[in-house]
Inverse folding.
């Protein structure tokens, strides 16, 4: 017994190419032009809100950086003041404990020069 097919399908005759769907599905829901306009407006609004949240994040980082810079400047000024006070106190203690200061004597009676 031999099996033979009489129907042959040629790719050249068909309007379909390889890996192409032969069935087209259509949606039962139809949207009008007003609905499309509203949907586009909503999408633009959502994208705008996303952009604004990203922009405000960058601004908040800028404010934080500005606060840190202000604090650094304040601490730098305080450090300078402390360095000056340290130098003044160190100099006074070194002068009092120097050999020249130990060799000095206090006068017994003060004398004033009159005009």
């Amino acid at each position: 017994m031999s099996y033979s097919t009489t129907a042959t399908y040629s790719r050249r005759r068909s309007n379909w190419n390889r890996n192409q769907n032969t069935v087209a599905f259509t949606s039962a829901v139809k949207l009008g032009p007003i609905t499309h306009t509203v949907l586009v407006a909503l999408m633009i609004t959502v994208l705008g809100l996303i952009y604004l949240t990203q922009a405000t994040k960058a601004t908040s980082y800028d404010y934080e950086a500005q606060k840190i810079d202000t604090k650094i400047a304040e601490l730098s000024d305080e450090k300078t003041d402390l360095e000056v006070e340290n130098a003044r106190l160190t100099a006074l203690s070194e002068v009092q404990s120097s050999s020249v200061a130990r060799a000095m004597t206090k006068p017994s009676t003060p004398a004033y020069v009159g005009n």
